[in-house]
Amino acid sequence: MHNRLKTKFLGVEVKSPLVLPAGVMGMSFSGMHISKINGAGIVTSKSLTLQPRKGHKGPVVAEFEGGILNCMGLCNPGISDGLVEVDQFKERSRTPVIVSVFATNTADFLKLTTEVNKSKGDFLELNLSCPNVFDEFGIPLAASKEEVFKIVKAVKDISKLPVIAKLSPNVYNIVEIALAAQKAGADALCLINTVGPGMAIDAKIVKPVLFNKFGGLSGPCIKPIALKLIYQTYSAVEIPILGMGGVTCGIDAVEMLMAGATIIGVGTAVYYRGIEVFDKINHEIIQFMDENGYESIDNIPRLEKSDV
Amino acid sequence: MNKRATIKISNIIKEAKDIKTFVFKHNLGAKPGQFIMLTDFEGGEKPFSLADCDTNTFTVTVKRIGEFTSRLFQKEIGDFLSVRGPFGSSFFISKGSVLLVGGGYGTPPLYFLAKELLKNGASVTVVNGAKSKDDLVFCDRFRELGVHYSNITQLGCLGREGTSVDLAQSALAKTKFDYVYAAGPEMMLKALQPILKEHEYEFLFERYMKCAIGICGNCTIDPLGIRLCVEGPVLPKKLVEQLTEFGKYHRDATGKRIEY
Ligand SMILES: Cc1cc2nc3c(=O)[nH]c(=O)nc-3n(C[C@H](O)[C@H](O)[C@H](O)COP(=O)(O)OP(=O)(O)OC[C@H]3O[C@@H](n4cnc5c(N)ncnc54)[C@H](O)[C@@H]3O)c2cc1C
Ligand SMILES: Cc1cc2nc3c(=O)[nH]c(=O)nc-3n(C[C@H](O)[C@H](O)[C@H](O)COP(=O)(O)O)c2cc1C
Ligand code: FES
Fold first, then answer.
1. What CATH number did the domain enclosing A28 receive?
2. What is this structure's pTM?
3. Cβ B6–A28 below 8 Å, yes or no?
4. Is the ipTM beyond the 0.85 threshold?
5. In this structure, are strands B123-130 and B45-53 parallel, antiparallel, or unpaired?
6. Which atom of ligand 3 is least distant from the CA of B215?
7. Which has the closest alpha carbon to A247: A216, A282, A215, A214?
8. For residue A159, which of A57, A113, A144, B202 sits 20 to 30 Å off, Cα-Cα?
């Protein structure tokens, strides 16, 4: 049955199109492991930086009806310890790993790439967008097509792994940025990162809930934005898309495919439906395929490309 | 959705030199072993085990150790604090003869557990240990409950020198227990494990928590990847026995491994 979910991403066979995205459960080898055994076809590490980062002080998450806000602040153990986790995961599993890295300039992205080259990771993802570290890092790199081009090009020149550029939804023209990444040689795109940022207020005590005041939105409320941006990007580029943003059930995942994604990230839904969410969605996709007469995941049709 | 409640502190009880209990009037609906995330919105949101909980009150007992807990110690009755939860797994409420082993500020959640066990008709023995008299809490509360109670300190302030593991060992030699529960410093749990080969047990673990809703991955424990904020903090013997990081390392706020 699971064979029907098999697909390929950048030439690599995956047993499910579902991906554990960056920043969710990817802090340790065991966090990636438990996601895999619960049905994820690919896992992603936490976004790693050159030095360890503690992240923001709490509260770092705030829930609301449509999703959650987070301002984790890119906490991570740093590239060398982070890659130990990636390698330990790979020692136990053949499941592909995306190593996500984050930096604020080309030179640091290159240092990170050099380290990732020595690891057992399968793909390199450049997190060019992180709305909740605005204060320290200025506007996200993904807001500038020149910056995106420069970084992706430089990394592609030295990376031994296929390179995925992760884009921010919080830009004026995502197509322009996606085309810049493609032109620079990106092998695939990942979108979307969290939306906003947004804010929550505690009315009783008259204070922002998040200590960082602002945090990126994820979960069901961002799905319509994700679908729109994935569809627009898919219409304009040739390279595959790792689509994500609010996917919570099988139909959501199918919609992502129809919008143009090749594989699909499931992040915040781990909270709503437990770590078993990957297998639950796998089953729901199969159910959809049964009901609608699709033999394999690759038979699910895509929308016609649009010129808007 | 986990609701956040911002509520006034309704009482503060000084337990020992650096240990205070905070009482809140609120229907939290928690079970023994579960925890809350507590914040004052001044920087930091931290996990604390429920030391007691019924339909209109809950309490947490806090040891002052760093920035956040020091700020908590300056709060007064009537000040607002904000709570998320309850989170995580809870202790199995068994019947029969049970042994509760507590160390330091790990003991208070066992008080909540003892109450529920008694309600269920269990025969409860509690052994409580701490470094010194300054860290030993809840002695009177346990005595008032009517459980078999004994305590000990490492410095011997109360006569005998030793740990709660020593007390557990002699209790296990004397009585046949159906179930053992423990909460306290990780090295105490580690020392306890080998003397519980023949017993069913549950341990309450601590790991660095951030989201408490099972997505950030900071609190996972190797090699299983169990999240202590969801599948924990209370883990049964069959899971504890599989943990390779137990008593060896934990992770700090960056996710880096820190050896014990
Ligand atoms: C499930 C659970 C239940 C707990 N129950 C209690 C309790 O009932 N009473 C009590 O006094 N303490 C309890 N703790 C520990 C308590 O959370 C820490 O003492 C507190 O967070 C320290 O904060 P600080 O700023 O004062 O100290 P810091 O100086 O920030 O840290 C001192 C030490 O506290 C621990 N710590 C700090 N932040 C966290 C965090 N976010 N999550 C987990 N550990 C942390 C670390 O070991 C750290 O080295 C519990 C922890 C967990 C995980
Ligand atoms: C707690 C949390 C932490 C995240 N950390 C990262 C990160 O380190 N790097 C990154 O590129 N994206 C990060 N993201 C964004 C997710 O990878 C994903 O793009 C986004 O949450 C949308 O998907 P979802 O709605 O399925 O969660 C994080 C999201 C959450 C909720
Ligand atoms: S604290 Fe985030 S997963 Fe447990």
1. 3.20.20.70
2. 0.95
3. no
4. yes
5. unpaired
6. 3
7. A282
8. A144
